[in-house]
Amino acid sequence: MEIIDINTWKRKQHYNHFRTLKDPYFGITFPVDVSRAYDFAKTHDVSFFGKYMHDCMKAINDIDELKLRIKDNQVVKYETINASATLIRSDQTFGFSYIEFGKELDQFLEHIISEKNRIETTGALFPLRNDLECIHCSAMPWVNFSGHKEPVSGYEDSIPKLAFSKAVKDFEGRLMMNVSINVNHALVDGYHVGLFAEKFQHYLNK
Q1: For the residues of 48-95, what is the DSSP string, one character each?
Q2: How far, in Å, CA of 189 to CA of 187, rounded?
Q3: What residues contact 53, with CB distance under 8 A and at least 6 apart?
Q4: What is the pLDDT of residue 155?
Q5: How many CB atoms lie within 10 A of CB 200?
Q6: What dihedral angle (degrees, nearest 10) is formed by the CA atoms of 99, 103, 105, 110?
Q7: Contact present, 66 and 188 (Cβ < 8 Å)
């Protein structure tokens, strides 16, 4: 973990301004082409959710601003960001997972399976590990949404929040999925969200 020196940080004024707002988060929704990711998942008999989630986390970990958090009145940057995703149970309730990120897809998929089994068998809402070194995310494969709003906590929050829609084919035959991302503007700007969108698509295409 690296502590950012606010006084010499190029974002000092932005941080000080947006941190005073009641709700400093901003969000956008953008489409990604998941055709190749879906074909890969089907060809290799792996989870489509796991495949695109891994590509998402690779993109997240490429961008320093998405690894920043506010902790104990300081800005810190974590080395690795993990995924805290909502995972559904067989009774249609859900639990919060904590999926450790690894560069290898197979390892990441194993972590998803382990967390899914824990959530199904324990009935617990919260994961065993619960910290700032993650993103919060949800898949909603039942709805092709074009906008999305995250719940707002009553305390200072700095964790990026993402949601993934149902994947549908467009008029060109591409399988498209909408992605919602909400970030704290004290730490992240639209430029960085744009970088994330580009990198996410890059990894989905590989």
Answers
A1: HHHHHHHHHHHHHHH-GGGGEEEETTEEEE-S--EEEEEEE-TTS-EE
A2: 7
A3: 83, 85, 99, 108, 112, 137, 139
A4: 75
A5: 24
A6: -40
A7: yes
Tokens 């899914």, residue? 116
pLDDT in tens for each of the 206 residues of the chain?
999 999 999 999 999 999 999 999 999 999 999 999 999 999 999 999 999 999 999 999 999 999 999 999 999 999 999 999 999 999 999 999 999 999 899 999 999 999 999 999 999 999 999 999 999 999 999 999 998 888 877 678 999 999 999 999 999 999 999 999 999 999 999 999 999 999 999 999 98
Please, which residues bridge with residue 180 across strands? 29, 163
* Closest C-alpha to 139, from 163, 117, 121, 110: 163
* Helix and strand numbers, DSSP H then E, in the chain: 5, 10
Classify each residue of 154-179 as buried b or exposed e, where b means 16 or more C-beta atoms within 10 Å of its C-beta.
Answer: eeebbbbbbbbbebeeeeeeebbbbb
Q: How many CB atoms lie within 10 A of CB 92?
A: 6
Beta bridge partners of 183: 26
- Look at residues 63, 141, 50, 65 and name the one whose alpha carbon lies nearest to residue 101: 50
End-to-end alpha carbon distance in the chain: 30
Write the burial class of residue 57 (CB in 10 Å: 0-12 exposed, 13-18 middle, 19+ buried).
buried
Read off the pTM.
0.95
